[in-house]
Amino acid sequence: MEQSATRAAVILPWERPDRQDEVRAAEARLEEAVGLAASIGLVIVRKAILLLRARRPATLLGSGQVDSLRAAVQEDRVAVVIIDSRLTPVQQRNLERALGCKVIDRTALILDIFGERAATKEGTLQVELAHLEYQRSRLVRTWTHLERQRGGFGFLGGPGETQIEADRRMIGDRIVRLKRELEQVRRTRGLHRAARRRVPFPVVALVGYTNAGKSTLFNALTGAAVFAQDQLFATLDPTMRGIRLPSGRRIILSDTVGFISDLPTELVAAFRATLEEVAEADIILHVRDISHPDSTAQRTDVEDVLEGMARSGTLEEDWRSRVIEVQNKADLIGGREAVHARKGSVVISAITGEGLPELLSAIDARLTEAMETVHYTLPVGEGALLAWLYAHGEITERRDGETEIEVTARLLPADRARFDLQTAERGR
Ligand SMILES: Nc1nc2c(ncn2[C@@H]2O[C@H](COP(=O)(O)OP(=O)(O)OP(=O)(O)O)[C@@H](O)[C@H]2O)c(=O)[nH]1
């Protein structure tokens, strides 16, 4: 595929003083950017941290740095240079001219990733909106090359003034339409929620920083224990997979887009929209890279975003009781035994597999803990409802009468909502 062959260089301009701890932070930041670029299919053939004494208005980088970068671009046949910083439209255009290749900045890279990962209607619209606003703020031919290749929104025309005016109008019109569509989607969101609740198993969502190991963990867990793909899962998106826990209970594992350090503010709404799955989750697995120099700050960031979602009503207020913290990459810091497990957390290595059985048991235990005791009186003959209760909960008591069956069961709050929805529909 053409896009998988796109050769890229990732450059991190670094303005902070080069103290030893800062160097480690810069290296981690560069690794993050490399991971992000690789996640959209770019082949990274060069990466570098460039120390900035001052931000040059024309090119951001110093002229010597631009010269050696040009040589590197030629030598390595680089098609795209990613500057992990914010570029003004002028800087971007000047760099493209000087380097003789496409140049994109951090915001453009992140937008691309969100565009690929947005799963819900709202997520897709929100990302497209952020994308158009970004383009409008530039109004020059920017990264249409990458766009076309990847089938995105590459509709910007030539660089002439009239063309730019026409583009400005077109983008403006599209933004107005998108905002209207978004409102429409938000109005009907409640309806979609109810429909999603009919996924008949508890949902466990993975959240965490990019590179924390979410996908590795997702694959490790699903690779080992996927249950037969039935009709239901064919219609779900590929970031959702069903697995069976040691208890025999089935769950849906749902991967989400990763958190990114210093997320540009204009992308916050788009990011939150891509996190919508978390609102549906019975359990949130917060995957952390405990070997990362910013590990603690990253944890706070994730919790702050979830708290923000709770304040805005997207997430239920008791979200903290549904989080299991997963302290990943224990193998890099001396193995499971060497790591102090925080309360409510499980230490693992998604790569070596250590701690995975304990994690599965923790999910099982947390689901059991979250169950509520409910009583139902079902008419005899409603075998399907009774069967549903047996399949999704634990029946603790059952009394069969002439016309009615009384059942006491333990159910998850979400399952209880699903069950109530079913009985309400039958009553209709
Ligand atoms: N040593 C070690 N490396 C790990 C472990 N888990 C993941 N990794 C590595 O960390 C890198 C990032 O892992 P991913 O699973 O792609 O991370 P992610 O959280 O899904 O990242 P995004 O998809 O960008 O959000 C990869 O190179 C993995 O091989 C682990 O337990 N130990």
UniProtKB/TrEMBL annotation:
GTP-binding keyword on record: yes
Subcellular location: Cytoplasm
Residues that bind Mg(2+): S215, T235
Domain annotation Hflx-type G: ranges: 202-371
This protein's record includes keyword GTP-binding: yes
Residues involved in GTP binding: 208-215, 233-237, 255-258, 328-331
A single GO cellular-component term on record: cytoplasm
InterPro entries xrefs: G_HFLX_dom, GTP-bd, GTP-bd_M, GTPase_HflX, GTPase_HflX_N, GTPase_HflX_N_sf, HflX_C, P-loop_NTPase
Domain of life: Bacteria
PROSITE patterns the UniProt entry points to: G_HFLX
SUPFAM superfamilies membership: P-loop containing nucleoside triphosphate hydrolases
GO MF assignments: GTP binding; GTPase activity; metal ion binding; ribosome binding
Pfam families: GTP-bdg_M (PF16360), GTP-bdg_N (PF13167), HflX_C (PF19275), MMR_HSR1 (PF01926)
Keywords of the record: Cytoplasm, GTP-binding, Magnesium, Metal-binding, Nucleotide-binding
Cofactor field: Mg(2+)
HAMAP family: GTPase_HflX
Membership in a protein family: Belongs to the TRAFAC class OBG-HflX-like GTPase superfamily. HflX GTPase family.
Function statement: GTPase that associates with the 50S ribosomal subunit and may have a role during protein synthesis or ribosome biogenesis.
Quaternary context: Monomer. Associates with the 50S ribosomal subunit.
Protein name, as recorded: GTPase HflX
Organism name: Gluconacetobacter johannae
